[in-house]
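Our collaborator T.R. sent over the components below with a one-line note: 'Predict the complex.' Nothing else. No constraints on interfaces, no templates requested, no preferences about which chain binds where. So this is a plain run: every listed entity goes in together, and whatever single assembly comes back becomes the starting point for the next discussion.
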Amino acid sequence: MKFSKLFIPTTKETPSDATLPSHQFLLRAGFISTSGSGLYNYLPLGKIVLDKIRNVVKEELDNSGAHEVQLSFVTPIEFWENSGRASKMGLEMLRIKDRKNNGFVLSPTNEEAMVELVKNRVTSYKDLPLNLYQINTKFRDEARPRFGLMRGREFLMKDGYSFHSDVEDMRREFHLMEETYKKIFARLGLDFRIVDADSGAIGGTGSKEFHVLADSGEDTIVVCDSCNYGANIEAAKRVPRQIGEKQTLQSGKVHTPDTKTIEELSAFLQILPSQTIKAVIKKAIYEDVTKVAVFFVRGDDELEETKACNSINALELVDISEDAIVEAGLVAGYVGIKELPSNVIFKIDSELKDENDMVCGANEAHYHLAGIDVCCMGDDVYFDLIAVKEGDICECCGGKLSYTKGIEVGHIFQLGDKYSKALGANFLDNNGKSKPFEMGTYGIGVSRLIAATIEQSHDEKGCIWTKETAPFFVDIIISNGKNEEELEAGTKIYEELKSAGIEVVLDDRVKERFGFKMGDFELIGFPYAVVVGKKLQEGLVELVNRKTGENEDIALSDIVEAIKTK
Ligand code: ATP
Ligand code: MG
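Returned assembly:
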């Protein structure tokens, strides 16, 4: 491809709303352009990268035995009503009406549609297992579309769905998908980590996420320094913490004026914060009601909101106003586990179970209760609610846990029969009995992978693509576009590389100076440049490595071979 003929509108200006390097560089280097909030156009370079990633995903999935299909992007609202998700999906799911006033949805995911496709077509255990996938547009009306391709409203996702006659076979496929995803992300040249995950709104039992490690990642991942354990903080576990020595306090109500915080309380009573119980009050949102929820954790632990939300099966937890706290009959700063108002739901962190001699609020202003034994509450009030901290102990090996940041690029779920049951999708088993399918579901953020690649691999000058993702492998830069000899030599290298099957672009622009072309090379981030310039007189060209910045003079006659070895 010749640069002069390509549509690559590079620019020096950094868009004001673009904070992440990937967002800035992809716009500035002319890979994408913004068409609306969370909506992007792919320009030629962006489309090449998108298709490359898509092809790697497709090749590995096809190798695993999955079959590609393509479902309609617009789906009837009935699908979503039948599964019960029409209300659960909330505002993220964009609904539209046609001219006949029929309801439709711009698909945010496709569990329902895929079950509808398979239902009544696959009817016997003999037709199972089956794994169908698509690489298709999704739309989610994200509350905060940001970071460019990282969190768009319209984006490209690979979504796969597998159907099985029993749980065991579903688990086999889940492991196969885990291995397949590893191959995909390794081929893309990414540094990634597989972690235990929360299953979120999609539901199901086991689930794992694939994270590209990058400082800008939105997710906190807990990893073990000594073994392979990794988990999203939303699902991370630890060995129950050893706590410091407790003071023996006289049981009963204690006057604790102006001690609303754990720090104030522990200082006042001269005890460690770990001997206190902290109450976190939230508003819990359900499909048609809201409730006041209180979560109790040890004084020096923090609440993990996703765990808390799951513990009470709410759709979402939000901050609660001071008025609403009072209205619920609670006294902020003095909420305790005994005698809570009956309209308030509550859960207690499992690590507090059977703890003695604790201090918690007395549900009365300026009073706490001392000598509290956390017992006899019924097993269903205890739940893992805490956010694992750095330095906590790994459950698997006793090693130390620490944090790292990740970008979620894939998520695989053991779904079970949740959707097949709800939508009446059954098959006949080997005894002639009708059963709902056991299902797995598997997602990859194809367009997000473009951004994740650059978050992991860039410098202050621009993008640094990996071999598999680079739009072109080599950029041949003609130092002076008007110099016939340079152009001739460059074109010859270009033709030879092309014949050797190497993806190459020839920067033959006449008007642009060398510095400008070099700047574009660095901004766009092709892995190598061949500079054809003044040294041509001595029979030399320069080979530049974008990642390391190294350059070496190479004889004109050797350059094609030199690139082939890269
Ligand atoms: P997140 O937690 O980042 O919002 P999610 O858990 O809602 O993602 P899934 O439903 O698991 O996402 O979707 C599968 C994959 O699609 C994700 O792993 C992610 O890579 C990608 N993805 C999800 N939302 C977006 C988005 N708004 N823009 C781009 N990619 C997305
Ligand atoms: Mg997910």
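Summary for T.R.: Residues 44-64 form the longest helix (21 residues).
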